[in-house]
């Protein structure tokens, strides 16, 4: 870290960046007493104009739960990173997190206020220069509220900061409250202590003044329309953080308007955004790993998509070694909604018409032949294989669909087979596990693609001949019976709309990720501590959408 940046972090009275950014890491390894201010108490000093807020707890029991996860190598890596971070932050001072910050710093709320007006950056150019370029920058507007759980320790820390070399302190009065401006290397930080129980910090003085106005009685984030109902948070075990967005569309609109490089949102996009009224999310730790839950409150008048839960039977059509899966229900309904919405978006409508026109050249109707019959449950899975055309890739894929319109599905597949023959691809039939499978074969490499029927209503399309064998041969154990799938998805809410599933514990998964994404040894070490990732969604009614994600972690081996 550059020396100037390291020096700037310390004088942020209460070490705001340290508290907000590294408190999680410290409490992960060493634990911390509980905070003195809850989310509602913090929100009462945040102005009602705040676009969103995040509340980070310092409850020792919640953070201690993380210590039960991670391989020894991963824990050593994180510990080293924490040690290096500590040296960089405190390199030019005698400040210690353990002695100076931890004893008094409680839970933290970080609020995002509307962007300040865009200002041209100050440019030093020779006098008389014409056509001077201006670099427009968006002013940051963050407000941090830190609970004070030990007044004496906080006072001792403030006094210690005053003794640091190169730190300039200036006091001013606003509404009877003392604002402290702490400056080093020309970068100021403003802070105020409210009611001897909360430390408020911001890089802009105006933000602190607004917090004081709120403390004195002006409208707060706690009583803002949409915020009061979501500040109760999301029910997750051992909650680490809660995120509150009371006006989702308004937040996006204001952030976009404050960004000079962003295009103005068209009315159609704004209408789509207004489908989501508010969002609240929680991050917690339980016996399976780190769990994230989010609840979106929707406008039922604008929400056009009709949710239906998935039976979940489709997972049983995949072999146990499937390492990634996406499942759902009713592609045809989703397509109909997309087509309906495209009427309001000229570019999207034009793209759809072009796609329809191109498929007509090969005698295919996009709406009927491709999406029309996909009206049941579906899934796409990635399955490891190093044979035939998959030798260099290491895996293949399979698409499985349940349909009530087998006739149209068969007609579509026949048209595709005919198209393949015109491209000099050999189309042949093969019996796999008692099922008739059609393959597109390439000389000396085997089947490029295969398709067939698993039962009266279930059709599959496989990329690679070995994948067709794995899906068609029901003698092998299925994915739904595997321990890995149960561990990652078993605790997710049911019934649901489908799954996203990724098994990180397979011997092939991490090498496959490494082959597509440049990863170093440290990244691989962290990935090896993850058992898998699971994601699902439900919609109890047209006014609510709930999302749940589990980052399943490997337990620590002692």
Description of the structure:
The radius of gyration is 29 Å and the shape is elongated. The two termini are 34 Å apart. Helix 2 packs antiparallel against helix 5 and helix 13 (366-372) crosses helix 14 (406-422). By secondary structure, it is α+β, with helices and mostly antiparallel strands. The relative contact order is 0.11. The protein has a 20-stranded antiparallel β-sheet, with helices on both faces. It has helices at 3-9, 16-30, 39-43, 60-64, 72-89, 97-101, 151-162, 205-215, 248-257, 267-273, 331-342, 346-360, 366-372, 406-422, 465-472, 483-489, 509-516, 521-527, and strands at residues 52-56, 105-112, 119-120, 136-137, 142-148, 168-174, 177-184, 187-194, 198-202, 239-245, 276-286, 289-298, 324-329, 377-384, 395-402, 426-432, 435-442, 446-455, 458-463, 499-503, 530-541, 544-553. A hairpin with a 2-residue loop joins strand 6 (168-174) and strand 7. The protein contains 18 helices and 22 strands.
């Amino acid at each position: 870290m550059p020396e100037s940046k390291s020096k700037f972090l310390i004088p942020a009275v209460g070490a705001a960046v340290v508290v907000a950014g590294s408190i999680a890491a410290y409490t992960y390894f060493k634990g911390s007493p509980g905070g003195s201010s809850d989310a509602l108490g913090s929100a009462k000093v945040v102005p009602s104009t705040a676009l969103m807020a995040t509340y980070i707890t310092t409850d020792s029991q919640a953070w201690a739960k993380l210590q039960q996860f991670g391989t020894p190598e991963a824990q050593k890596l994180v510990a080293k990173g924490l040690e290096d971070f500590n040296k960089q932050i405190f390199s030019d001072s005698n400040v210690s997190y353990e002695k100076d910050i931890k004893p008094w710093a409680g839970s933290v709320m970080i609020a995002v206020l509307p962007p300040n007006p865009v200002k041209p950056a100050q440019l030093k150019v020779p006098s008389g220069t014409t056509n001077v370029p201006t670099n427009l920058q968006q002013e940051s507007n963050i407000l941090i509220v830190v609970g004070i759980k030990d007044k004496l320790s906080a006072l001792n820390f403030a006094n210690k900061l005053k003794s640091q070399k190169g730190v300039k302190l200036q006091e001013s009065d606003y509404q009877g409250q003392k604002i402290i401006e702490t400056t080093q290397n020309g970068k100021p930080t403003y802070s105020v202590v409210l009611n001897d129980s909360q430390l408020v910090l911001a890089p802009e003085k105006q933000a602190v003044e607004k917090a004081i106005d709120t403390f004195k009685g002006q409208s707060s984030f706690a009583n803002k329309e949409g915020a009061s109902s979501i500040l109760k948070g999301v029910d997750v075990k051992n909650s680490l953080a809660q995120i509150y967005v009371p006006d989702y569309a308004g937040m996006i609109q204001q952030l976009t308007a404050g960004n000079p490089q962003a295009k103005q949102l068209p009315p159609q996009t704004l209408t789509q955004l207004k489908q989501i009224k508010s969002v609240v999310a929680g991050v917690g730790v339980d016996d399976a790993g780190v769990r994230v839950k989010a609840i979106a409150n929707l406008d039922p008048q604008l929400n056009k998509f009709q949710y239906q839960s998935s039976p979940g039977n489709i997972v049983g059509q995949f072999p146990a070694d499937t390492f990634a899966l996406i499942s759902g229900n009713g592609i045809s309904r989703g397509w109909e909604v997309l087509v309906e919405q495209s009427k309001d978006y000229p570019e999207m409508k034009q793209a759809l018409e072009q796609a329809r026109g191109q498929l007509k050249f090969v005698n295919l109707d996009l709406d009927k032949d491709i999406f029309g019959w996909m009206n049941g449950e579906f899934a796409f899975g990635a399955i490891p294989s190093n044979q035939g055309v998959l030798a260099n890739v290491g895996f293949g894929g399979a698409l499985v669909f349940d349909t009530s319109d087998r006739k149209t599905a068969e007609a579509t597949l026949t048209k595709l087979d005919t198209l393949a023959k015109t491209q000099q691809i050999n189309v042949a039939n093969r019996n796999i596990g008692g099922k008739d499978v059609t393959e597109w074969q390439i000389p000396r490499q085997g089947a490029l693609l295969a398709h067939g029927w698993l039962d009266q209503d279930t059709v599959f399309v496989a990329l690679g001949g070995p994948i067709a064998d794995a899906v068609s041969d029901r003698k092998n154990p299925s994915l739904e019976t595997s321990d890995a799938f149960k561990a990652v998805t078993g605790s997710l809410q049911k019934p649901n709309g489908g799954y996203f599933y990724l098994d990180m514990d397979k011997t092939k998964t991490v090498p496959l990720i490494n082959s597509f994404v440049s990863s170093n040894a440290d990244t691989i070490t962290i990935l090896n501590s993850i058992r898998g990732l699971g994601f699902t969604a439900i919609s109890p009614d047209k006014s609510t959408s709930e999302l749940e994600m589990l980052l399943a972690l490997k337990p620590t081996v002692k």
